[in-house]
Amino acid sequence: MKPLIPLLALLLALTPLSVVVAQAPPNEAERKVFLDFKARAEKGDAGAQVTLGRFYSMGQGVEKDDAAAVPWYRKAAEQNHPGAQFWLGSVYFNGRGVPKDMVEGAKWWLKAAEQNDTGGQYNIGMAYANGLGVPKDLVKSHAWCTVSAANNKPTTAILAKIEKQMTPEQLAEAARLAREITERLAKLKKN
Length: 191
Fold this sequence. Notes:
Blueprint: H1 4-14, H2 17-20, H3 28-42, H4 46-58, H5 66-77, H6 82-94, H7 102-113, H8 118-130, H9 138-150, H10 156-164, H11 168-190
C-alpha cells in the first residue's frame, strides 16, 4: 500500500493546478463590476466591450469562458479598438475560444500594430520572423520589432537574432520601413 502514496503524490505534482483547484466563484463586488461593464458593452462602448472580453477570458466577475470573450473582442475590434484587435488576434493565433487560425490572428495583430498597439507590433514582428500566419519576411519583422522597441517593448535581443539572418540590403530596407511606419503612426497620434 505504501508504493501507492508516492505514485499518487507524483500524479498530483504533475497535474496542473487549475485541475486540482477549482476557480472560486466571483464575489459580489466583482460581479457588480462585470455587470456594469456588460451594460456599457451592450450599448456599443468599445472600451467596455474589450474589458468584458478580458473579464470572460480571465474569469473575473463571471465564470471563465474564452468562447464568450470572442464576440466582445470582435465587436470592439470592428470599431477599430487596437486593444481589442490585439486580443482578437491572440485568441485566433492560440485557438482560445475559437479554432486556431494563425492567419486570422496575424491579420488582427497587424491592424492593432498599425494603430500603435505595442503588443500588436511585437507579435506581428515575431509572426513575420517565424512565418506564422504570414509569409516569413525578415525585413517586415525587423521593422515592426524596431517600432515596438521604440515604444518600450523589450526587443533588443530579438532584433539581434533577426539581424544575424539578414543581408546589409535587407537591414537598410528594414530601417527605411521602420521610419515609414513610425512617421505614419506619428500622424495617427496627431489626428
